[in-house]
Amino acid sequence: MESKLSKPITIGKMKWLLFLLGTLKIPLIGFIKPRLIEVNDQSAKLKIKLRRRSKNHLNSMYFGALAVGADVAAGIHAFYFSKKMGKPVSFAFKSVQADFLKRAESDVVFSSDEGHLVMAAMKLSASSGERVNQPIHVLAKDSSGEIVATFVMEVSVKVK
Predict the structure, then answer these.
(1) Which residue from 47, 117, 136, 145 has the highest number of Cβ atoms inside 10 Å of its Cβ?
(2) Is the pTM above the cut of 0.90?
(3) Mean pLDDT of all residues belonging to the chain
């Protein structure tokens, strides 16, 4: 399986695929317009700007926008490794745990450093033919670097 993870995936290609996903498959992602900062075998980072589309009546980021950021930060690795392997993957979220620590009154950067766990789950799914669940931790930080929310997103993957 390791030799099949050889297709190079650039950040530009992943940005384009995220745009297409938000435009064609999941319009709410397209509406919020998250910007992919980094994606590699280990980590993923994206930014959601605080603007009219993403803020609430208190002028802080709406929790739905925060959930979209956590969704993309945790799920982008399944998409990334699927493209790298050249195999289709079915993935969804089985559960979510969120702790909102303070109001996000600026742009928010979402990060996950658990790409290796997603890759291991996908390898296990490819070898067993079964769906595999894996909890992924996501941090949300405001523009001053303070943590505004933490998420545990349980990613469910099945390599076809």
Answers:
(1) 136
(2) yes
(3) 93
Rounded Cα gap, residues 90 and 67, in angstroms: 20
For helices 11-20 and 63-85, angle between their N-to-C axes, nearest 10 degrees: 120
Residue 48, domain extent: 2-159
Task: Give the count of domains, the chain.
Answer: 1
- Find out whether 118 and 81 touch, Cβ atoms under 8 Å: yes
70-78: average pLDDT: 95
- The CATH number linked to 34 is 3.10.129.10
Give the whole-angstrom CA distance, residue 18 versus residue 57. 28
d(CA 152, CA 131): 19
